Every structure is written in structure tokens, then in C-alpha cells.
């Protein structure tokens, strides 16, 4: 029982970075652009989120405000990187896969270089502390699993319903979905497809930046070159797994994180099991699940990956 | 009530419109005008510039030269929004609907009055749809997803959408090309009713519709106006001649039925579609050598799946396909080809050719390993060139040479490349799926002649088509497919377009709905 509670209590905060990043990626893909550079934006977000409190406190305690300044910087930089990506793939119609890999390398590389320049070696920060919710966190079992985390975890779990509402109930969501599913139809009815795609990329980028800042400020409380560890790519995979639906994506993020928590727990308990395989477990799980989740082409963004140009006749 | 926001359009003029695309002059100094309550038919062959001209009118393309005048004053449309605001609306040839959204959402996408930053007022859109539906007698289900609707229903949604957005001037781009004859009649009746309130530009190349509906006709040829006049003063034959610039007489199959042996016999065939349901569901069909059997039906009733199953491109769940006595169900495509099957696929650009390959390479796609074209793993280039030159000549393919990428050719020429490849391999049987879809009359005439020649030489042909005239002209027998089954087979002499239209809608002569 304790073992299970531990895994769940560990898995929930693990899922947050994935959840935020994949909801951002979902907006990108719903508008018709897949951004493989998510990993790079997360790396920049992680670095900038770390940088603000570090510069002020030099590793020591700082006022809370600097943590949140770091988050804002990470989101702004993420949005900018999203727009920059849009310039390449929307305006200049570069192939999205290649441009995305370029953005990933750019983000990871720049974050690492700046880190060595401004910080130097491994340094930790106090980060954002946990904020157990009074009373609720005392409930047995549910308390530690759901109500004993840092504030960003609670915010992250408000995001899926918010994303669902935006996507399905607002005019902007309608435009995003139409631009990703049938840009020609959207265009014919007066939607500015490429503008919508830029907007979605900015939103997606800001969320990826936030996801990165969560990792450095709340989870690791430090920055290193490997801090993202492929989560950006997992986020992209989760969007497919979740069929571009916020609630299913949340399920995917939780599933993956619980597998990761399980793997840590197995190692921690010293169960006689080769740890290399344990580390592999969550990734293998993603591949297996993706292989078995059949894509329903009718529900998703059918023009995903295709640049839109009104005057190219087909 | 949000209504009548748009001012009346008492006249619309396009003057000197010119539009160039890389390598082509799509519109060359075109002028036309439409008055209030008038129906103007815009006709011309494919590539004559009709659609481009209308896209300019809707603000989708910017003209290189020329101007548009509404009620005598010049307007400039930078985007479709400007055109909607002026009261124009267009139903495009390929319906502009988002398949994975509901009808309601599709209309809400353009209905800005129902938008507030945080919410779309779907109830307001629903009310507006109801209002338009009542007024014009166009019923649609607002909560259905577009992908669930038939082509005819989708068109109705397009019309409702356009009217909801306040159009006083309708542009219809080949509205009847995908409809059954009954749906076509309904549409024409509807448009006739609407003319009291709206002006309409109607693009078509079905001349009897033009004759039936329009007041005036403008004929475009190669991007410029070839003729303009009142419809009632000209016969369909005259209009056809003006359209193509010469007399075109589509050939007819008038030879007596020849008594060949049974070439293809399909029994109890069941095949699944991409979406997993049985698209061909217990189909029986038999075709003899030296016979053309036309398979008529509204597209989407299992034609594609049937053709693919015969050619080994789709697995057969049940039943047999006897080809000169041998069951070819579930053979690999290569084995079916080796049995002597020829195939003109539905999608000529993606299934019929490899677009970036040169024309001569496309000619030998099925024979690249044949000793005639390859020796010891090397291609025999001279032989390939000789073959290509011969076929280009024989099939009258218009291209600078045989090295051009096949994908750069026009639709008619691509179809001739496919036809040349298939027929030159001297197959024992041919499956031709929509062989003339979207082609102009000149190219269609050529293809029809070739098919009839091959029939006379004793080849059996399965002709899948949704053009009733094509089926009636060429076939010895006509089988009508509905929901994956042949609901009836008629002889050429006993078939006419009315009977076929009724069958295509799934109704047997006795009046029963077929299941």
C-alpha cells in the first residue's frame, strides 16, 4: 500500500512537465504544425527559469518573486522561439520535421552554452517549495498523492480542462482546428490560416517554456545539459497517443510518469532487476502504446505538416 | 434579428481581369457582368480559367490586372471576408468544409456575429441556420459531423453556410458534378426558386443544365472570353462547339454484343473499406471478352474497393474473383498483372503514375524487369526511348519530349500516358475507373475511341463511371452498384438515364428501397 502511494505521489509531479509541454504541442498540431523543437524550447525554458533566481541569490534563498520572474522569462522566450519556428515553417514553408530538429539542437545547444558562460558548473537553487493544501493534504492516501505538491502542479492540472474549453468552445479554438484540418476551407471562409498558425506556435512555445522552467525550478532545482532528457520528444508522441484531445493527453502523461516512478521505486527498493531495463521501461511503454493506438484520421488535424499557400494549385 | 445587413447588389462587373500563374496565363483580359436576379452560366473546358476567375471575385486570388465593380463603384477584395461583407458567397467545386467538425461549427467558423472572445454562441448560429433552412426549404442537421454526410448533403450545407453568411450573390462552381440525377434536378429547382432574391453565377460543363437554368452564357476558352450571349438563342450543340473550338462527337458503342467467353466472374465478393466496414458486400458480376460492362453508381458505393480488390491492392474477405477460370482473389498485385490484367486507377496523379519520374519511365513501370527493357540488371535505355517515342506518337500525348516529369503534364495527357502504358502491354482485360473524370471533351473522346477499339479486338472492359452519358455511350451492359452490391444489370437498349438514376439512388423498379 505504501509502495503504491509512493509511486503515485512521485508520479503526479513527474507528469507535470510532460503534461504542459504536450498540451502546448497539441495546439501546434491542431493548427497543422508539428514542432519537434519542443525539446529545445524546454531546454531554454529550463535554463531561463533557473537563471533569474540564481543570478539574484547565487544559489542561496531568494524572494519568491524571482522564481516567478524566471517562469515568465521562460514562457516569453518559448513564445518567441515558437514564432521564430513559424517564420521558418509557416512563412518560408521549410519542411517541419527538419526545421524542428534544428530548433531542438539550437535550443539545447544555446541553453548549455549560456549555462557554462553565466553559471559555470553544477549549482542548485532552492526553487519553488512544495505548498501542501491545508486540511486536504492530511487526507490519508489522497493527501500525499494529490494535495502535497508545489503550486505549479495544481496549475498544471487545471490546464487540461482549460485547453479543452479553448479548443472546443472559443472562436480561436474553432479557427485553430479548422486551420489544421482543412486550411483551404478555413481560408475560403475568411480565417487567416497562417496567422492562426503563428498564434498557436506562440502559445505552444510558451507552454513548452513553462514546462522547462518547471523542471529546473520545481523538480530538479538545478540546471544541467540533460535536464530535459527527451521529454520534449515524449510530449510530441503523447499528442499522437492522445489523439489531439486534452484529456486523453493527460492520461498519457500520467501513464508515462507512473511508469517512470515505478522504475525509480524498483531501483530504490533494491529489487533484483537490472536497472538498465527499469530505466527503459517508460520509453518502451510509449512505443508499445503508440503501436497499438490506431490513429483515427478523421478526428485529428488532417493537414498536419503541410504548409498552406493559397495560390499553389493542386 | 441579424438579417439583411448586406446591401442589394443590382449589378456586378468584372473588367479586364488578368491573372498569371508561373508558366500559365490563367485569365487573359476577361470582362463580364451580371445583373440583379440574373443567372449567368460560365462554361468552358478544364483549365479555361473559370475557377481562377471566380476565386479572384471571392478575394482568394489577387488579379494582376483589372477591376471589379459593384453597383457601379470599384471594390477591392483583399480576402474572402471582404467578399462576404459585400454580399458575395461561393460554393466551391471541392466543398470547403472541415470534415471533423459539425455542421454547426463549420458555419460558426464564418459567422462572426456569434463570436465573443471567450465563447462561440452556437445557439445563435443554430437559430440562423433554422431561419435560412425554413426560408429556402433546405434542411440540414446542425449536429451531424460533416464526414457523416453524403456528397449531396454536404452541398446543401455549403449552400446553407453561404446563405447564413448573408450572400446576395451566389457563385456555384460545378455544383452538379458529384450529384445523382435526382439531386441535380432538386438543386436546379432550388436555384430557380432562389433567383427572385439572388443573382447567381453557375459554372458547369453540362450543357443541358446550362440551357435549363441560365439566362445568359459566357464561354471561356484558354483564359479569355470566346463567346457571350443569351442562352435561349443557342442550342447545346452550338455552345459545345464554341467551348472546344471544334465539333466534338463522342463515339458510341453501336456494335452488336459479341459472344466472348467469360473473362471475369465475381461471386459473393466482400471487401472492407479503409474505415473498416464492408464496402463491397456480396457482389456478383460477370464480364465476357469483347464486352464493356459499365458500373454506374454514385461514388463511394464500393467502386474503389471493388477495383482495388480485383487488382490485388486490397484484401478480399470472402468470395472469389475468377479471371479466365483462375481465382485471383488475394493474389499479389504483381501476380494479377502477370495474369494479364490492365488497370486505370481512380487517382491518376497518385496511383496511376510516379509524378517525378519521366514520361518514358512511367511507360515501363510495370515492365522494368522485363528482358525487353532490362538486361542483366541494367535498363536498356535505347529500347525504352524507342517505346516512349512510339507511344507518344500513337496516343497523341502533347509534351515537349518523353523526358519531362509525368507529373508536370496536364490531366488529359497524364491519363493518356496511363492508357498508353496499360494498352501497350496487351492485357486480356481492363479495369478502367473514372477514366475521363475531370477531362475535357477532346481528351474524353480520344479515350472513349481507344476503349471501343480494344473492345472490338476482343478485350473485356469493366468501366467504372459516375457519368451516365459515358456509361450509356460505351457499355454493352450496365450494372448499377449501390452500397456494395449490384442492385440491377440492364442491357444497353433497355437502359436510359432516368432508370439508371433511380437505381443509383438505391431504388429498384418495383419501388422498394434496396437494402
Task: Provide a short characterization of the protein structure.
With 314 residues, chain A is mostly helical. Chain A has helices spanning 2-30, 38-57, 64-91, 96-118, 142-146, 151-169, 171-181, 183-188, 193-219, 231-241, 246-268, 275-292.
How would you characterize this protein structure?
The complex is a heterodimer of chains A (314) and B (515). Chain A is mainly alpha-helical and 314 residues long. Chain A has one domain: ABC transporter involved in vitamin B12 uptake, BtuC. Helices cover 70% and strands 0% of the residues of chain A. Chain A has helices at residues 2-30, 38-57, 64-91, 96-118, 142-146, 151-169, 171-181, 183-188, 193-219, 231-241, 246-268, 275-292. The radius of gyration of chain A is 20 Å and the shape is globular. Chain A starts with a helix and ends in a 22-residue tail after the last helix. With 515 residues, chain B is of the alpha/beta class. Chain B contains 17 helices and 24 strands. In chain B, the strands form 6 sheets. A 6-stranded mixed β-sheet of chain B has the order 6-9-10-3-11-12, sandwiched between helices. In chain B, helix 14 (411-424) runs parallel beside helix 15. The longest helix of chain B is centred in the C-terminal third of the chain and has 16 residues, at 441-456. The radius of gyration of chain B is 25 Å and the shape is globular. Mean pLDDT of chain B is 87; it is low at 1-6 and 511-515. The interface between A and B is medium-sized, with 25 and 32 residues.
Amino acid at each position: 500500500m505504501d509502495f503504491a502511494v509512493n509511486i503515485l505521489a512521485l508520479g503526479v509531479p513527474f507528469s507535470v512537465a510532460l503534461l504542459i509541454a504536450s498540451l502546448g504541442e497539441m495546439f501546434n498540431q491542431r493548427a497543422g504544425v508539428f514542432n519537434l523543437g519542443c525539446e529545445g524550447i524546454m531546454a531554454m525554458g529550463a535554463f531561463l527559469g533557473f537563471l533569474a533566481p540564481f543570478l539574484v541569490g547565487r544559489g542561496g534563498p531568494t524572494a519568491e518573486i524571482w522564481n516567478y520572474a524566471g517562469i515568465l522569462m521562460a514562457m516569453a522566450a518559448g513564445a518567441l522561439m515558437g514564432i521564430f519556428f513559424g517564420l521558418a515553417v509557416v512563412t518560408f514553408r521549410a519542411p517541419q520535421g527538419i526545421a524542428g530538429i534544428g530548433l531542438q539542437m539550437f535550443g539545447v545547444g544555446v541553453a548549455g552554452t549560456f549555462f557554462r558562460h553565466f553559471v559555470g558548473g553544477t549549482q542548485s537553487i532552492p526553487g519553488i517549495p512544495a505548498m501542501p493544501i491545508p486540511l486536504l493534504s492530511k487526507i490519508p492516501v489522497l493527501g500525499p498523492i494529490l494535495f502535497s505538491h508545489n503550486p505549479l502542479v495544481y496549475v498544471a492540472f487545471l490546464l487540461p480542462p482549460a485547453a479543452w474549453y479553448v479548443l472546443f468552445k472559443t472562436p480561436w479554438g474553432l479557427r485553430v482546428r479548422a486551420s489544421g484540418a482543412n486550411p483551404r476551407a478555413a481560408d475560403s471562409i475568411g480565417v487567416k490560416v497562417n496567422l492562426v498558425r503563428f498564434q498557436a506556435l506562440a502559445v505552444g512555445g510558451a507552454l513548452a517554456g513553462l514546462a522547462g522552467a518547471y523542471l529546473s525550478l520545481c523538480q530538479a532545482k538545478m540546471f544541467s545539459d540533460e535536464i530535459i532528457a527527451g521529454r520534449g520528444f515524449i510530449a510530441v508522441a503523447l499528442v499522437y497517443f492522445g489523439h489531439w484531445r486534452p484529456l486523453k493527453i493527460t492520461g498519457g502523461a500520467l501513464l508515462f510518469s507512473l511508469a517512470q516512478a515505478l522504475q525509480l521505486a524498483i531501483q530504490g527498493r533494491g529489487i533484483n532487476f537490472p536497472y538498465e531495463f527499469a530505466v527503459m521501461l517508460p520509453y518502451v511503454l510509449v512505443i508499445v502504446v503508440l503501436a497499438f493506438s490506431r490513429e483515427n484520421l478523421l478526428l485529428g488535424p488532417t493537414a498536419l505538416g503541410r504548409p498552406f499557400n493559397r495560390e499553389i494549385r493542386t | 434579428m441579424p438579417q439583411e445587413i448586406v446591401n442589394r447588389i443590382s449589378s456586378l462587373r468584372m473588367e479586364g481581369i488578368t491573372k498569371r500563374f508561373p508558366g500559365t496565363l490563367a485569365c487573359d483580359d476577361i470582362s463580364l457582368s451580371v445583373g440583379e436576379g440574373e443567372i449567368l452560366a460560365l462554361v468552358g473546358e478544364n483549365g479555361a480559367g473559370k475557377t481562377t476567375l471566380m476565386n479572384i471575385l471571392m478575394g482568394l486570388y489577387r488579379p494582376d490586372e483589372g477591376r471589379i465593380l459593384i453597383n457601379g463603384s470599384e471594390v477591392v477584395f483583399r480576402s474572402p471576408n471582404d467578399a462576404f461583407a459585400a454580399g458575395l458567397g461561393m460554393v466551391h467545386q471541392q466543398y470547403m468544409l472541415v470534415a471533423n467538425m459539425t455542421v454547426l461549427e463549420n458555419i460558426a467558423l464564418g459567422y462572426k456575429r456569434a463570436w465573443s472572445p471567450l465563447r462561440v454562441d452556437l445557439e445563435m448560429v443554430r437559430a440562423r441556420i433554422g431561419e435560412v433552412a425554413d426560408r429556402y426549404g433546405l434542411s440540414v442537421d446542425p449536429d451531424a459531423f460533416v464526414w457523416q454526410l453524403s456528397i449531396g448533403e454536404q452541398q446543401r450545407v455549403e449552400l446553407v453556410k453561404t446563405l447564413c453568411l448573408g450572400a446576395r450573390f451566389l457563385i456555384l462552381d460545378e455544383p452538379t458534378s458529384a450529384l445523382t440525377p435526382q439531386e441535380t434536378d432538386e438543386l436546379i429547382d432550388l436555384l430557380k426558386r432562389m433567383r427572385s432574391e439572388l443573382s447567381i453565377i453557375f459554372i458547369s460543363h453540362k450543357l443541358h443544365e446550362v440551357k435549363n437554368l441560365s439566362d445568359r452564357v459566357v464561354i471561356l476558352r484558354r483564359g479569355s472570353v470566346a463567346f457571350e450571349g443569351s442562352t435561349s438563342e443557342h442550342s447545346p450543340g452550338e455552345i459545345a462547339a464554341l467551348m472546344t473550338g471544334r465539333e466534338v462527337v463522342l463515339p458510341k458503342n453501336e456494335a452488336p454484343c459479341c459472344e466472348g467467353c467469360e473473362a471475369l466472374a465475381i461471386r459473393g465478393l466482400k471487401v472492407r473499406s479503409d474505415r473498416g466496414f464492408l464496402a463491397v458486400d456480396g457482389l456478383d458480376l460477370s464480364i465476357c471478352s469483347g464486352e464493356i460492362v459499365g458500373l454506374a453508381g454514385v461514388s463511394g458505393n464500393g467502386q474503389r474497393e471493388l477495383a482495388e480488390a480485383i487488382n490485388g491492392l486490397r484484401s478480399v474477405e470472402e468470395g472469389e474473383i475468377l479471371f479466365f477460370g483462375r481465382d485471383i482473389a488475394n493474389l499479389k498485385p504483381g501476380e494479377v498483372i502477370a495474369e494479364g490484367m490492365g488497370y486505370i486507377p481512380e487517382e491518376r496523379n497518385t496511383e496511376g503514375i510516379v509524378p517525378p519520374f519521366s514520361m518514358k519511365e512511367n511507360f515501363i513501370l510495370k515492365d522494368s524487369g522485363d528482358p525487353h527493357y532490362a538486361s542483366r540488371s541494367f535498363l536498356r535505355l535505347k529500347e525504352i526511348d524507342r517505346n516512349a517515342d512510339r507511344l507518344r506518337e500513337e496516343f497523341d500525348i502533347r509534351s515537349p519530349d518523353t523526358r519531362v516529369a509525368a507529373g508536370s503534364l496536364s490531366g488529359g495527357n497524364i491519363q493518356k500516358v496511363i492508357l498508353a502504358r496499360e494498352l501497350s502491354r496487351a492485357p486480356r482485360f481492363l479495369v478502367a475507373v473514372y477514366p475521363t473524370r475531370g477531362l475535357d471533351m477532346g481528351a474524353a473522346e480520344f479515350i472513349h475511341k481507344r476503349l471501343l477499339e480494344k473492345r472490338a479486338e476482343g478485350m473485356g472492359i469493366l468501366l467504372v463511371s459516375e457519368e451516365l452519358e459515358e456509361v450509356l455511350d460505351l457499355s454493352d451492359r450496365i450494372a448499377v452498384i449501390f452500397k456494395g452490391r449490384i442492385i440491377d444489370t440492364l442491357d444497353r437498349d433497355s437502359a436510359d438515364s432516368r432508370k439508371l438514376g433511380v437505381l443509383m439512388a438505391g431504388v429498384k423498379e418495383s419501388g422498394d428501397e434496396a437494402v
